[in-house]
């Protein structure tokens, strides 16, 4: 995490160069806390994208200004075939717009709802995709902190990519105050308000892999407290009798080592190489995966891989007092254009949170060759 990395940033483009009218909005494919996600087409280039349309007052009402600004900043310096990359970001008077790669396969939660469990072959492939994306983030000092099925989406070849970087962070040693995440996938050290590192993402990976195998999460509850109490009261450990037919004990061992409550005992705590060298993944064809030359074992055949409930009407739940406040200037700098030529930035600083800055030195590595020896 402490390596000195080469940093790249995107050249500033005037905010007047992009507008909603530059895109044809086809139909809604998703819904989030701030607005909808559209399938759009850029008029000039005919590029098909997914466009988040976020209502500014809703972002302010949910106290999520930092989250949406943080996501744009991180995505402006991250680019990799196993994450969902940002192409454009801009705003108008009422909304923020974030254009991303369109993932026609839908999110993993949608498919878990359809099949409930996956085979070991499918799971191994999914895990390899996630690990490859996490490796890129972790080598570059970024912790995702919200790995879950809703934030993993299928591309048109059946490969999973990581998305939603709203609570992702550049690693800092003193981060015990950062307790954001999704309880069912949140590592114990985050729940207990302790300093945490990349191991939190591998705990979430363990929860996912357990869910693929067993059909439910290892720790459940009606709220965060119940889930925390469950984690604190027992260490989940898959036994031979609990391993479904068609699954190997190596897969169970992989899950058990990821779900260790103490991060120092958890697989991946010392880096992604630990995960990739586990006996369950050791012989996986990593280079072919990165090249996307493997045939995915689970293919999303239909392009209609989206929850139909996203077309429901919005509930107008914004605090009326928020509407009366001025939001001018709050989202200053919310802009990005992937067509702009990148330039080297030797000492660029990105604000991580109010009153705290960290020098971010990101190296673009679409192919981390040393990881595939």
TrEMBL record:
Residues in Protein kinase domain copies? 23-281
First-level EC class: transferase
InterPro entries in the record: AGC-kinase_C, Kinase-like_dom_sf, Prot_kinase_dom, Protein_kinase_ATP_BS, Ser/Thr_kinase_AS, Ser_Thr_kinase_AGC
Domain of life (superkingdom): Eukaryota
UniProt catalytic activity: L-seryl-[protein] + ATP = O-phospho-L-seryl-[protein] + ADP + H(+); L-threonyl-[protein] + ATP = O-phospho-L-threonyl-[protein] + ADP + H(+)
What Gene3D superfamilies does UniProt report for this protein, alphabetically?
A: Phosphorylase Kinase, domain 1, Transferase(Phosphotransferase) domain 1
Instruction: List, for all copies, the residue spans of the domain called AGC-kinase C-terminal.
Output: 282-346
Question: Which Enzyme Commission number(s) are listed?
Answer: 2.7.11.1
Name the positions where ATP binds.
Answer: 52
Its GO biological process annotations read: intracellular signal transduction
Which parts form a coiled-coil structure per UniProt? Answer: none
Q: One Pfam match, by short name?
A: Pkinase
* Keyword entries, A-Z: ATP-binding, Kinase, Nucleotide-binding, Serine/threonine-protein kinase, Transferase
GO MF terms here are: ATP binding; protein serine/threonine kinase activity
PANTHER family listed in its UniProt record? PROTEIN KINASE DOMAIN-CONTAINING PROTEIN, SERINE/THREONINE-PROTEIN KINASE
Q: Which family does it belong to?
A: Belongs to the protein kinase superfamily.
What is the name of this protein? Answer: non-specific serine/threonine protein kinase
Organism in which the protein naturally occurs: Blepharisma stoltei
